Amino acid sequence: MEQRTEWAERLAAVIAGEVFRYRRNQNMSAQALSDRCTELGMTIPRAVISNLENNRRTSVSVPELLVLAAALDVPPAALVFPVGHAETTEALPGAMTPPFEAVRWFAGEEHSTTPTTATDDDTAPLRHTSWRTEGAAGEAVTGYRRADRIAEASLAHADRADRMRADAYDLEEQPARDALVRAAQKQDDKARSRLADLMQVLDTLHDLGAAVPPGTLHVDLFRQTTRGNQPRDANAEEAE
């Protein structure tokens, strides 16, 4: 229990140091930071911020962390794990971890792992345990991220197809126009393929009982895999 308490206090000290770093880099006074927190809906008095930064306060609540991060306009994880400012961070009691790896774990990225220490051999280097996501609660997080990534790729192919069709309007030579139309069709096919991948991921999320808000994943946008105008028909124009 004592070890956990000490780690909690060390973690609070890290957060305090990062709050001070970002506040100083923005030339923001403690009072200005306090005022901004109030504007965001949670009052954190200047005295509390001062006590925290001077290690007279040894705890930070989750609501305080979130509001302080928003007030400083930084990701909350950046206050907990000092990426770029430390080689390692104590992500869990006794688990010294590269800060960015800790952020990836915190954010639930697909290939992240849970920080831990070697338990079988006290002299062994610190290790990470594989983070099981298949069928686990965290799979909803990775599923959302995977769906978002696939959706972005799908839209990129659809946009590329649109640009190719638009460029085909400006071509006078039929062979060149046809070639561009065929290239656009290939991009459409790729968009449809990615769309099929997206639907599979969304079905998996549904099976997990996870809600999939269309506004979050922009699903409606990515269903528009064939858009834009068709290139002009040169033969029809000549007939006119």
Instruction: Give the amount of beta strand, in percent.
Output: 5-15%
- Strand order of the main beta sheet, please? 1-2
Output the number of helix runs: 11
Q: Can you tell me the CATH class of the largest domain? A: Mainly Alpha
- Unreliable residue runs: 118-133, 225-240
CATH topology title of the largest domain: 434 Repressor (Amino-terminal Domain)
In quaternary terms, these chains amount to: single chain
Instruction: Let me know the number of strands.
Output: 4
Q: Could you characterize what this model shows?
A:
The strands form two sheets. Strands 1-2 form a two-stranded antiparallel ribbon. The chain has a two-stranded antiparallel ribbon with strand order 3-4. It is mainly alpha-helical and 240 residues long. The protein folds into two domains: 2-130, Orthogonal Bundle (434 Repressor (Amino-terminal Domain)), CATH 1.10.260; 139-232. The protein is 61% helix and 6% strand. The chain is elongated and about 75 Å long. The model is unreliable at 118-133 and 225-240 (pLDDT under 50).
Characterize this entry briefly.
The chain has eleven helices and four strands, in the order H-H-H-H-H-E-E-H-E-E-H-H-H-H-H. With 240 residues, it is mainly alpha-helical. It has two domains: 129 residues, 434 Repressor (Amino-terminal Domain), CATH 1.10.260.40; 94 residues.
